[in-house]
Amino acid sequence: MEFDHAGIATDDRDTLIDLYGTLFDASVAHEETFGELRVAFLDLGNGYFELLEPTDDAEGPIPNYLDKRGPGVHHLALRTDDIDDALDAARAAGVSLIDEEPRPGAWGHDVAFLHPGSTGGVLIEFVEH
Ligand code: CO
């Protein structure tokens, strides 16, 4: 398993694209509106920052996160070649799953989240490209 990306909740995606582009020489690898989120993946060379900005009047985990905690790191994503196997291994280890089955995520990837209560307070996403 390899590091894939850090998911960052923001209310100003475009400013962060400019800032991180200047600071980290990170270019936009992919952009889309996914559900109620404006998403951008910035290529850092050995992984990505996934910027997550709610559209106007969006509801869901990211707007809730921003309301409660403000902008910041929301989750860390690890890439796996077999997300079903990864979920089985997590289940076998007694980890609580937010997603019992993989679901479609941004950029056409399959994703599944582990419950942070089982993983040291870190929201972990498995992602299969
Ligand atoms: Co993510």
How would you portray this structure in words?
This protein is of the alpha+beta class. The chain is built from 3 helices and 8 strands, in the order E-H-E-E-E-H-E-H-E-E-E. Strands 2-3-4-1-5-8-7-6 form an 8-stranded mixed β-sheet. A hairpin with a 5-residue loop joins strand 6 (103-104) and strand 7. The longest helix is centred in the first third of the chain and has 12 residues, at 13-24. The model has no long low-confidence stretch (mean pLDDT 97). Cobalt (II) ion binds next to strand 1 and strand 5.
Query: What ligand species are in this complex?
Result: cobalt (II) ion
CATH superfamily: 2,3-Dihydroxybiphenyl 1,2-Dioxygenase, domain 1
* Count of helical stretches: 3
Largest sheet: 8 strands, mixed
Strands of the widest sheet, in order across it, are 2-3-4-1-5-8-7-6
Give the structure's gist in a few sentences.
This protein has 129 residues and is α+β, with helices and mostly antiparallel strands. The protein contains three helices and eight strands.
Lay out the secondary structure.
Layout: E1 2-9, H1 13-24, E2 27-34, E3 37-43, E4 48-54, H2 61-69, E5 72-79, H3 83-92, E6 103-104, E7 110-114, E8 124-128
Parallel strand pairs: 1-4, 5-8
Antiparallel strand pairs: 1-5, 2-3, 3-4, 6-7, 7-8
Bound molecules: cobalt (II) ion (CO).
